[in-house]
Amino acid sequence: MIGWFVVAWRSLLQGIPAVAALGMLALLAAPLACAEEVSALEKIRHSGVLKVALYRNFAPFSHDGRGVDVDLAEALAAKLGVKMSPLWFEADENMEDDLRNMVWKGHYLGYGPADVMMHAPIDPAYMAKVDRVKFFAPYHRERYAIARQLDKLPTLDGFEPFEKLPLGVEGDTLAATVMLSADGGRYRNTIKTFRTAGEAVAALKAGAVAAVLAQQGELEGGLRGDARMAIDLPPHPILQKRQWPLGLAVKKQSDDLAQALQAAINELMADGTLKAIMLRHGVQHRQP
């Protein structure tokens, strides 16, 4: 294509009538202009594939090729009339890195970006700071909860029992920060920090800790059907108040794709499909 432009430009310089040469340039430029106007949704429908960014090792939402977000991504792709292609990734140091790698730029190792990312935070203050990404379609509300062994903790009205009983938390989370500083640091010696919430839940089931403080969805999925356990809101005002909707994220300019996915989410929520997907993985759907 570049060669034809060079020929046309040289013809103009060599004396071919300007109108004819410029007409040639216009005809050659037309396909490029049309290509630039092809929308994100049109490209997806043309390819027949919706590329979806999914967190790896994040049960019960996305782990080992299955989970709430995986099934939801499949349902969204079906609504668009295409197939879903997962793009798995490890969480980076912060959300900005995840959005750069998986939504608007791509990873420096050569993969990404995807067409849409699942499990994105729908927070007005945060969204206002990220101008390359469009956040939309909240489909679930997450919050912190505490899971406990009923034989060791039949009830839990405060954190005092954790002066003696071990409590599991995921490192580098608000839950861990709150517990390390709560009541003047009274529980520092009994707090057990784990790499993931899943590892903390495994320790709880094995009896290595008496309770786990983590996101409620992870606790529900990890302990589904375990009659030895109970899951409650934590007895702490900051942790009870901290709740956040989860939704989708696409490139800022992908307006038509966002509109189509928003309509699909609305339909899946209205007909009960989303709730059924979550129950299938042990998670109670919470309206965002």
Would you give an account of this structure?
There is one protein chain. With 288 residues, the protein is an alpha/beta fold. It has three domains: 2-37, no CATH class; 42-142 and 244-280, Periplasmic binding protein-like II (D-Maltodextrin-Binding Protein, domain 2), CATH 3.40.190.10; 143-241, D-Maltodextrin-Binding Protein, domain 2, CATH 3.40.190. 43% of the residues lie in helices and 22% in strands. It contains twelve helices and nine strands. Strands 1, 2, 3, 4, 5, 6, 7, 8 and 9 form a nine-stranded mixed β-sheet that branches. Helix 8 packs across helix 9. The protein is elongated. The two termini are 50 Å apart. The model is unreliable at 1-13, 18-22 and 24-35 (pLDDT under 50).
Please tell me what the overall shape is: elongated
- At CATH level 2, the architecture of the largest domain is 3-Layer(aba) Sandwich
What proportion of the residues form beta strands (DSSP E)?
A: 15-25%
Number of domains: 3
Q: Which range best describes the helical content: under 10%, 10-25%, 25-40%, 40-55%, 55-70% or over 70%?
A: 40-55%
User: What is the β-strand count?
Assistant: 9
Question: Could you give the topology of this structure?
Answer:
Layout: H1 2-13, H2 18-37, H3 40-47, E1 49-55, H4 68-80, E2 83-89, H5 95-104, E3 116-121, H6 124-129, E4 133-149, E5 167-170, H7 174-181, E6 191-194, H8 197-206, E7 211-215, H9 216-223, E8 229-232, H10 237-241, E9 243-251, H11 255-270, H12 273-280
Parallel strand pairs: 1-2, 1-3, 5-6, 5-7
Antiparallel strand pairs: 3-9, 4-7, 4-8, 4-9
Helix pairs in contact: 1-2, 4-11, 8-9
